[in-house]
């Protein structure tokens, strides 16, 4: 069996293991843990939440203007047609992956651009990505986007979400 | 090696083996050293130290093994079709196997030559010869795919090939069979061999940037059989050395009739001189017809061009270009040591291994120390060119490789052993058994100026009882030896596919760092590429139906096709839209009379299909690509020609018309 496929199954196994583990952990905590440990937990969640928003990858800060850069969005559409449209609709309909409607409202630019360029690592570490994989059961592929490509596709997503 | 001779030698070998092995230890564990397992163990997830590019013999393919583990990584289709990969079946790859005899789906691949710069491996191309329908192939080490196949005209069995010069200026192709030349009367009695049959060698130039091959010139020679060859290096750069047998020029029962002469020849070719003669216009243009096939990684397609001309040099018009050195007896191996000073002849029927000196050869040429001539070509005196003989090396010396410390390793076919000897004083230093009847040897970098050494691999001709039996037909056998110490130590025995003749090994990082992971879809110049699902479509052109199809985890687009009629030919142009490593998609259709396609990420490949019956045919992806791989399927409907079904195609929208009626 080939490496990627291996990873797919490995991850699925690990994932289900994690899911079961969390479930047990929670119930235990609910019944036995004291207040201060809950506080620690909450802090950890906050840190994690901040990380989750940006995901994992090279994009730590992306400047986004309130208005649309039409040229970028057009370049992004071209990439979408070749490399993304097979799996993503522009509506909220799920195909192989989730529909893109409102994705820029749900996720930060950094998260989306990181996920688009670094899906393997994020699917192994990022909780949101892992949650999506649980629903879709197909690993979002690395489609070989350059940094600029990722930015352009993001702009196209913004256009799709009504930014003018 | 020649079939008849192989048989006799094999019989001899077996007879020998039964006598000798009965007194030798039968159990391998007594011949391997205690730390063998540790030396060949490559832990899970770790990489081998060397790539071993191995000839696949009568399979027609080239194989890639890891050393020291002996694990098989890839069978690269070269001269034979491979339905698994669609090689030779897809419209794009069919032209690769075109020849002047039409489509030839098989060949007999014997030897490997890795490209060199300054006499050292450069990790760019692996060349291989087709011994049957004379051909030369170039495999690109970035993609591990056959990039080019060149047919060799005026040849009848490209055995003495593809040995290479130290800057990959030329690859040699020498014919094993002499034949009547096509520009003379070819319908002649076979027993007029001596008068009418000629041999040639070709020098094929290699473009420094693209690797593209071109027959620079050929040399017309008396009708001997050329066996193996090596280019000179260092001081002997500019020369080629070629072993010749059947100097008797027999045309029947060569087993006996070609073994009459005490000595055959090693032919020394001054190719720099030959180049000058070509420049000076001494060559004669011969009209010929041969196929030149190239695979373009941008169009993902091969093209075959018939070429019509070669330049032929005749030694008659080109003095000082060719000399013969007498060499006992039916020589096979003809190997130059890393310094380029010594040329080792391995006469299969000889009792000694002669080692020739390049300096002495030049001196003898200078002083015209000839013992006569053969078909007008000067024959140098044996003693005048000899550095010395390795005495009592063993039985049936075949081929020699070298390490970086002045040692040579010669395979002994009949006595099934490898003999290590010192080049300077010709002393035998060590010998180890092989199992059984060893042919070629390979030391990493062994034929170059800079042997990487450390290991020696023996490729055997006979397997017998080495592995669990698999009926009458067995796998081939190879043995790995640690040669880092004074004594050779067998550390591994591994099976190979048929038949491993010669092989070369190269440090893994020289190759792995360049390995292509996928083809960039935006760079595709395939005429039928589908750039995204939006472009997917079905087009009719007369009775041709072109399906522009995309594949991505986990669906084909379109996956419902209707309106195709019996009598149509359907071309499925399948573009894999993935842009990640190791996500090929396959494509198969029920009842296809050719094969499947295996389409790499970013690539387009085409399967032509002529439906023979009306009906609905399933199509699907054959390479397990995702959790929903089994769902990656669809249908094509074939209708009677008079039934008016409009051409239509879709994915996901072709729903039942009257859903409510069902309830
Ligand atoms: Cu598939």
Give the CATH level 1 class of the largest domain in chain B: Mainly Beta
Instruction: Note poorly predicted spans of chain B.
Output: 11-30
Which structural class do you get from the secondary structure elements of chain B?
mainly beta
Oligomer: heterodimer
* Count of individual helical segments of chain B: 8
- The fraction of residues assigned to DSSP E strands of chain A is under 5%
Q: Number of DSSP helices of chain A? A: 8
- C-alpha geometry of chain A: globular
The CATH topology name of the largest domain in chain A reads: Cytochrome Bc1 Complex, Chain D, domain 2
How much of the sequence of chain B is in beta strands?
A: 35-45%
Question: What is the helix fraction of residues of chain A, given as a range?
Answer: 55-70%
Count every beta strand of chain A, where a strand is a DSSP E run of 2 or more residues: 0
Largest sheet of chain B: 11 strands, mixed
> Largest interface: which pair?
A-B, 22 and 28 residues
Number of strands of chain B: 46
Q: Output the CATH class name of the largest domain in chain A.
A: Mainly Alpha
Radius of gyration of chain A: 18 Å
Give the SSE map.
The complex is a heterodimer of chains A (164) and B (663).
Chain A: H1 3-32, H2 35-54, H3 70-84, H4 103-106, H5 109-117, H6 119-125, H7 127-136, H8 147-160
Helix pairs in contact in A: 3-8, 5-6, 5-8, 6-7
Chain B: H1 3-23, H2 36-40, E1 50-55, E2 62-67, E3 72-76, E4 98-99, E5 102-103, E6 109-117, E7 120-130, E8 135-140, E9 145-151, E10 158-160, E11 170-175, E12 179-180, H3 193-196, E13 197-206, E14 213-222, E15 225-231, E16 239-245, H4 254-257, E17 264-270, H5 271-279, E18 284-296, E19 301-313, E20 322-327, E21 331-336, E22 342-347, E23 353-357, H6 358-366, E24 370-374, E25 377-380, H7 382-385, E26 386-390, E27 397-402, E28 407-412, E29 417-422, E30 428-433, E31 438-442, E32 455-460, E33 476-482, E34 489-496, E35 503-507, H8 509-512, E36 537-541, E37 544-552, E38 555-557, E39 560-565, E40 569-576, E41 585-589, E42 597-599, E43 604-609, E44 615-620, E45 633-639, E46 648-650
Parallel strand pairs in B: 14-19, 37-40, 39-45
Antiparallel strand pairs in B: 1-2, 1-35, 2-3, 4-5, 6-7, 7-8, 8-9, 9-18, 10-11, 11-13, 12-13, 13-14, 15-16, 16-17, 17-20, 18-19, 21-22, 22-23, 23-26, 24-25, 27-28, 28-29, 29-30, 31-32, 32-33, 33-34, 36-37, 37-38, 39-46, 40-43, 41-42, 41-44, 44-45
């Amino acid at each position: 069996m080939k490496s990627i496929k291996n990873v797919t199954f490995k991850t699925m196994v690990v994932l289900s293991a994690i899911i079961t583990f969390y479930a047990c952990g929670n119930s235990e905590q609910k019944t036995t843990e004291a207040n201060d440990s809950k506080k620690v937990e909450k802090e950890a969640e906050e840190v994690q939440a901040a990380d989750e928003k940006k995901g994992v990858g090279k994009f730590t800060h992306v400047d986004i203007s309130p208005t649309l850069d039409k040229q970028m969005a057009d370049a992004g559409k071209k990439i979408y047609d070749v490399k993304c449209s097979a799996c993503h609709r522009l509506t909220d309909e799920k195909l192989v992956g989730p529909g893109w409607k409102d994705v820029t409202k749900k996720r930060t630019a950094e998260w989306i651009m990181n996920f688009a360029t670094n899906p393997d690592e994020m699917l192994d570490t990022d909780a949101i990505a892992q949650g999506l994989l649980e629903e879709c059961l197909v690993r979002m592929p690395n489609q070989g986007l350059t940094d600029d490509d990722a930015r352009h596709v993001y702009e196209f997503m913004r256009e799709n979400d009504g930014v003018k | 090696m020649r079939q008849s001779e192989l048989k006799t030698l094999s019989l001899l070998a077996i007879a020998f083996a039964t006598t000798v092995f009965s007194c030798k230890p039968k159990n391998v564990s007594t011949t391997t050293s205690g730390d063998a397992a540790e030396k060949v163990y490559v832990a899970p997830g770790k990489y081998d130290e060397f790539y071993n590019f191995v000839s696949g013999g009568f399979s027609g393919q080239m194989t890639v093994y890891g050393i020291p583990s002996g694990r098989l990584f890839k069978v690269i289709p070269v001269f034979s079709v491979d339905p698994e990969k669609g090689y030779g079946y897809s419209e794009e790859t069919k032209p690769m196997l075109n020849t002047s005899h039409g489509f030839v789906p098989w060949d007999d691949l014997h030897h490997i030559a890795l490209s060199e710069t300054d006499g050292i491996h450069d990790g760019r191309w692996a060349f291989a010869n087709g011994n049957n329908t004379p051909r030369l192939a170039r495999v690109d080490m970035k993609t591990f795919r056959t990039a080019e196949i060149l047919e060799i005209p005026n040849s009848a069995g490209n055995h003495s090939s593809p040995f290479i010069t130290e800057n990959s200026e030329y690859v040699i192709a020498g014919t094993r069979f002499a034949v009547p030349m096509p520009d003379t009367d070819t319908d002649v009695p076979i027993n007029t061999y001596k008068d009418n049959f000629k041999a040639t060698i070709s020098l094929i130039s290699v473009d420094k940037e693209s690797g593209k091959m071109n027959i620079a010139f050929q040399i017309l020679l008396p009708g001997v059989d050329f066996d193996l060859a090596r280019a000179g290096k260092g001081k002997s750069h500019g020369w080629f050395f070629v072993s010749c047998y059947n100097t008797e020029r027999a045309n029947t029962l060569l087993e006996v009739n070609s073994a009459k002469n005490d000595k055959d020849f090693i032919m020394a070719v001054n190719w720099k001189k030959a180049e000058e003669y070509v420049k000076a216009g001494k060559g004669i243009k011969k009209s010929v017809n041969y196929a030149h096939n190239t695979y373009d990684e941008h169009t993902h397609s091969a093209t075959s061009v018939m070429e019509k001309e070669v330049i032929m040099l005749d030694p008659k018009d080109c003095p000082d270009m060719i000399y013969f050195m007498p060499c006992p007896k039916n020589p096979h191996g003809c190997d130059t040591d890393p310094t380029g000073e010594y040329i080792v002849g391995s006469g299969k029927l000889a009792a000694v291994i002669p080692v020739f000196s390049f300096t002495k050869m030049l001196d003898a040429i200078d002083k015209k120390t000839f013992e006569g001539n053969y078909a007008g070509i000067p024959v140098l005196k044996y003693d005048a060119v000899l550095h010395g003989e390795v005495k009592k090396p063993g039985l049936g010396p075949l081929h020699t490789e070298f390490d970086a410390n002045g040692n040579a390793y010669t395979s002994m076919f009949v006595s099934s052993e490898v003999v290590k000897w010192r080049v300077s004083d010709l002393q035998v230093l060590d010998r180890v058994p092989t199992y059984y009847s060893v042919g070629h040897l390979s030391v990493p970098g062994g034929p170059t100026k800079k042997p990487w050494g450390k290991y020696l691999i023996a490729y055997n001709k006979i397997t017998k009882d080495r592995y669990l039996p698999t009926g009458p037909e067995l796998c081939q056998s190879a043995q790995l030896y640690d040669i880092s110490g004074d004594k050779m130590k067998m550390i591994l025995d591994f099976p190979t596919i048929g038949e491993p003749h010669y092989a070369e090994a190269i440090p893994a990082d020289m190759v792995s760092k360049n390995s292509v992971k996928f083809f960039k879809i935006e760079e595709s110049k395939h005429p039928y590429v589908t750039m995204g699902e939006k472009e997917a479509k079905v087009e009719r052109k007369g009775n041709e139906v072109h399906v522009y199809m995309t594949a991505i985890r986990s669906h084909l687009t379109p996956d419902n096709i209707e309106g195709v009629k019996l009598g149509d030919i359907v071309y499925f142009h399948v573009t894999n839209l993935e842009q990640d490593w190791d996500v090929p998609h396959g494509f198969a259709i029920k009842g296809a009379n050719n094969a499947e396609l295996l389409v790499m990420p970013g690539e387009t490949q085409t399967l032509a299909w002529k439906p023979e019956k009306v009906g609905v045919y399933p199509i699907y992806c054959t390479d397990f690509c995702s959790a929903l791989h089994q769902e990656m399927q669809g249908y094509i409907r074939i209708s009677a020609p008079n039934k008016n079904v409009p051409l239509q195609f879709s994915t996901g929208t072709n729903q039942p018309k009257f859903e409510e009626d069902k309830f």
